[in-house]
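Worked example 2:
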Amino acid sequence: MSEQRAILHVDMDAFYASVEQHDDPSLAGKPVLVGGTGGRGVVAAASYEARRFGVHSAMPMREALRRCPQASCVHPRMKRYKEVSQQVFAVFGEFTPLVQGLSLDEAFLDVTASQALFGGPEAIGHEIRRRIRERTGLAASVGVAHNKLLAKFASDMGKPDGLFVIAPDKVSAILDPLPVRRLFGIGARTAERLEAGGISTLGQLREAPEAVLFPFFGRQWRRMRERAAGMDERPVQSDVEEQQVSAEETFETDLKLHEDMQREVARLAERSCVRLRARGLVAGLVTVKIRRRDFTTYTRQHSFAPPTNDSALIRDLAQQLLAGWLEEQPRAAVRLLGVGVGHLAPATQLELFGSHQPVPSGQLDDTLDRIREKFGDKAVKRGNLV
């Protein structure tokens, strides 16, 4: 029998807001909102003092200030947050090389092989929290379990500033009463449908038969039932390759004309491809992200082969994906669009095309990239983006 894994999920509490409160003692103990304050400003982080008023990240700043008018608004300082993040991740590296960062303030750690040196996973979790507070002055919550899914559940249960353990023999007792909305991969609409169908808890989802679950999840029904049971075999990947290169934009005024949306998608596809080529990569998947006026967000994807970093192909595919969505929602107003490329691999453009002659579109891309590198991003653009 293989050794049971020991996985930690470490999540800094209200990270951006906590950094601001630490650096400016006058903000300590007060509601703090980090984010833009313009007409399209969105909350990037809210202190726990602000969360008591129903404020949360991704909420429009106007709504957040309506709920908590006494809050202090602070513009994000990404350079500072990255500095603190490096201190936090340095602590992780003192316990294990198996660290999978999810963001500046969140990571999975596999400490299975670290226990002989540092003690059990719970002891390691406590020591990580102590060192983080000692070096940064900030609080971290830690979840301890035998897989990533459960460790994430546990850290949520430990918030704020705590540590929670989900032991293997306690999984059902802890997960079964939780609402289905707590399971990653189940959105608000699917949760509403499940609840209307009599499935409101993870325990009910875990016990539901295929005939009940298939209409909700299709071929993924078994995977969702396993996740409701706390099953997860994903390893902690310390050197996760870049999963996606993307570009997105929130518009000051909602886009209503389809031609405006298509032009913006073309521009975002171009930006993604420029970044792709700068990294020496090709992609085999294009994703379009669309957020409506009411903040409902949609994604559409299309995979292709052979992989490429050709702007024309990726732009055309992105515009086709948007066109398909617009057929479903022709009157929708759009506040955000994004284009990402995934299934990344190192570029081997000559071998891909089976020829020693570069393709013409690739020559054009290379020329445009060199002009932008020398004279700036706005020095030249394609005619169909004007």
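The chain has a mean pLDDT of 87. The chain has three domains: 1-165, 172-228, 244-385.
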